[in-house]
Design brief:
The chain is mostly helical. 78% of the residues lie in helices and 0% in strands. The chain has 14 helices and no strands. The chain has helices at 3-23, 33-36, 42-77, 89-102, 109-137, 140-168, 171-181, 190-209, 211-217, 221-226, 231-253, 259-271, 275-297, 308-330. Helix 4 packs parallel to helix 6 (140-168) and helix 5 (109-137) packs across helix 11 (231-253). The longest helix has 36 residues, at 42-77. The protein is globular, with a radius of gyration of 20 Å. The model has no long low-confidence stretch (mean pLDDT 82). It comes from Kosakonia pseudosacchari. Belongs to the binding-protein-dependent transport system permease family. FecCD subfamily. It holds the Pfam family FecCD. Keywords: Cell membrane, Membrane, Transmembrane, Transmembrane helix, Transport. It is a multi-pass membrane protein.
Length: 332
């Protein structure tokens, strides 16, 4: 890792730390940090500890997970347009989570904590395997077009499935599905946050440890094999980690689009293609982007709240169009 990348990462980390402290004080109710430790402010402390702080930490976790998953997918498929939402992976996770929310499934309380993540993992991994097999079958512009078309079809199928489940759901389930489908970090508790952290943090650590091998994978499967990389094993590991990151994020926050597309691409422009810098850079920048977006979502229309998924879509859709036009101009 070069000196520029190292300085940039430290700067991102310090900026993220400052934004985290600021975001924890902003919202429908202002909670200045100095007042939280004064005598007689026990009610404010409880609001900060039970409502504001877990939401801020969840924004950091989900943003980091989505950005890191996009970084892994772009490196694995060697394609800057790879994204969990565009390729239907988030859609697969959303369908299985919707099944869990609506269908009458009874499990123990301990299993129920992990059940949404497990359901989302099954859906996202199934779709990712289909996408990966198709990516191996085609290359170049034809392969890219095929992947995007398959992603559109998968999103349409999963959207139809979620719509059917919404139709048969009761009022409480329908309200939960609607809020979850637009992306929201409002329904968070410490127990859910701890479960999400227990899945996102180990998967992120695994991806960080294989960043050097992911660099070699950019040379091609055959070249990476000759350089001592067990290519099938590495690909399976990255698929599982990426699916786990997407699944956990979707299960706890709903559909939050374009974070996995915009952040890794920006970091690649800023830091270069070296995944030893790109992986932590995407993680820090993704956490920062969703933290800022969620802070805006709960302050700009206070005391009401805007779904954070709408804000990320407003940011990501123009960026995606720019990438498409840039790709089309690059093709002779």
């Amino acid at each position: 890792m070069n000196r520029h990348a190292s300085r940039t990462l430290w700067g991102l980390a310090l900026l993220l730390l400052g934004l985290t402290g600021l975001a924890s004080t902003q919202g429908a109710m202002q909670l200045p940090l100095k007042s939280l430790w004064q005598a007689g402010d026990e009610a404010l402390r409880q609001i900060w500890l039970t409502v504001r702080l877990p939401r801020v930490l969840l924004a950091l976790l989900v943003g980091a997970a989505l950005a890191l998953s996009g970084c892994v997918m772009q490196g694995l498929f060697r394609n800057p347009l790879a994204d969990p939402g565009l390729l239907g992976i988030s859609g697969g996770a959303s369908l299985t989570v919707a099944c869990w929310l609506v269908l009458p499934i009874t499990v123990s309380p301990l299993v129920a904590l992990y059940a949404p993540m497990l359901a989302a993992f099954i859906g996202s991994l199934a779709v990712m395997m289909v996408i990966y097999l198709l990516s191996k079958a085609g290359a170049g512009e034809t392969g890219l077009s095929r992947l995007l078309l398959v992603g559109i079809a998968i999103n349409a199928l999963c959207g139809a499935g979620v719509g059917l489940l919404s139709w048969i759901s009761n009022d409480a389930q329908l309200r939960q599905l609607s809020q979850w489908g637009m992306g929201s970090l409002g329904q968070i508790e410490w127990s859910t946050l701890s479960v999400a952290a227990s899945l996102i943090l180990p998967a992120s650590l695994v991806v960080w440890r294989v960043a050097s091998a992911l660099n070699l994978l950019q040379l091609g499967d055959e070249e990476a094999h000759y350089l001592g990389i067990n290519v099938p094993r590495l690909q399976r590991l990255l698929l599982v980690c990426s699916a786990l990151l997407v699944a956990t994020a979707v299960a706890v926050s709903g559909i939050i689009s374009f974070v996995g597309l915009v952040v890794p691409h920006l970091m690649r422009i800023w830091l270069g293609p070296d995944h030893r810098a790109l992986v932590p850079g995407a993680l820090l920048a993704g956490a920062m982007l969703l933290l800022v977006a969620d802070t805006v979502a709960r302050t700009v229309v206070a005391p009401a709240e805007m779904p954070v998924g709408l804000l990320t879509s407003m940011l990501g859709a123009p960026w995606f169009l720019w990438l498409i036009f840039r790709q089309s101009k690059a093709v002779p």
